[in-house]
Structure formats: structure tokens, C-alpha cells
Amino acid sequence: MKILGVIPARYASSRFPGKPLADLLGKSMVERVYLQCRKSKRLTDIVVATDHAQIHEHVKGFGGKSVMTSDHHPSGTDRCFEALNVAGSDADFVVNIQGDEPFIDPMQIDQLCASLDSKTELATLIQRIITLEQLLSPNEAKVVLNKDREAMYFSRSPIPFVHKQQQKAWLDHGPFYRHVGLYAYRRDILQAITKLPVSPLEKAESLEQLRWIENGYKIRTVETDAEEGMCIDTPEDLEKAKEYLRSLRGK
Question: What is the CA radius of gyration of the chain?
């Protein structure tokens, strides 16, 4: 089975323009993501999918693979599909790897890849929620599962609702799960879902994966207990990442 890892790397960002090129103690953020992905034992190939010539040349400059894609894609999923075609890849599956997580754990990538087989349409990682803050945060997408551990629904609200229990005690009546934003798509399914219009539930929750569920696609979930990575959304996040790296070097 051939698995292509795609790292979407847009230049434009309302909170952090040029984020993929941001310096993180001698290496750009996109290079650090790429190097972490190279540690994966299950990815057959890795490519950065960008909409900006400077990022494209930068990736080639450090020896990585890069393809130019449209600057009009509404999501990373759409960019992944174009990257698959532009790269001329014959991969059976594509893994969408967040381009703003420079410390992504390659073991998580391999864990997701290990779950894939010919019957898999889509797959993603989930993690047990252990704090009330995570459960109640609208920035955390929660997920409920069926008996086959396929996703039934994702929500920014805490789900499931625990009847006749105070919210502060809900975790005692779990389990509750949060979504970890790493996706695997079977090749034919990736092509199909890029043609779907925005769905009502997706629009309501601002969660793209609801579009797939609404249209009958199955999302396999894989539970991980790896530590949560660091997502870089703002220049302030970048400074925190630098401090983290400095602390590692001081050990």
C-alpha cells in the first residue's frame, strides 16, 4: 500500500502571514514539519502543497518535494487532492498533515496509517478528553462513535450530553473524545468529497468533516495517547515554540 503525506502550506493567514516560512531557531516551520514527517515509517512519499512561489522554492532549497497548487482552495482537503494529481502520485491513500505543527509526532502518523485497509474510506485520530476545560472548549472538536468506532458526529459542544448530572461531573460518566486533526483519505474518496457542496451541519459547526458524514461517508477513528502537539497560529505561538526548543536543547 502506498501512502502519500501532503503538507498544505498556504502563505496567506489573517493572523500570521507567511507562517510556513517563519524561522524557528534556524529552520523554517514548514521544514520542521517536513523533517518530522520523514521520520514516519509508513509514508511512502511526502510533498508540500503550497500556493506561493517563495514557499515552493524554499522547500526545494532544503531538499524537500513541493508542488504549486491553487490559491483558491477552500480547505486543506481540496489542496491535498490537487497535490496528489500535480505530483503524479499513484498513492492508494493521502494523509493530510497540518503544516503548522512543527513538533508533530511521527508515531501518530504511523498509528493512523497502520489502520488503513482497502475498506477504509476516511480515517482520523481521536484522543480521550481528560480535563473539563477541553470538554467545554468550543475550540476543541468533540466526537461520538458507533460500535465500530466510526465517527457518528463531531461538535464544538460537549457531546454526548449527560442527563441528570452536573456538567462538572460529566467526565466521570465518559468516555469523551476530542478530534486530532490528522486525516487519511482513500484516493477515490478524496476525489469524491472534493466535489461535495458545503453542508448545513458543516456550516453550523464550521467543521468540514460533517460534510462527509452528512453525505454517507464513513470515518474510521483511531485512538492515540500521544502528547498533544503545538499548533502555531500566531506570532505569540511561535515565540512559545522557540522557548520549547530552547528548553529541549538545555536538557
Answer: 18
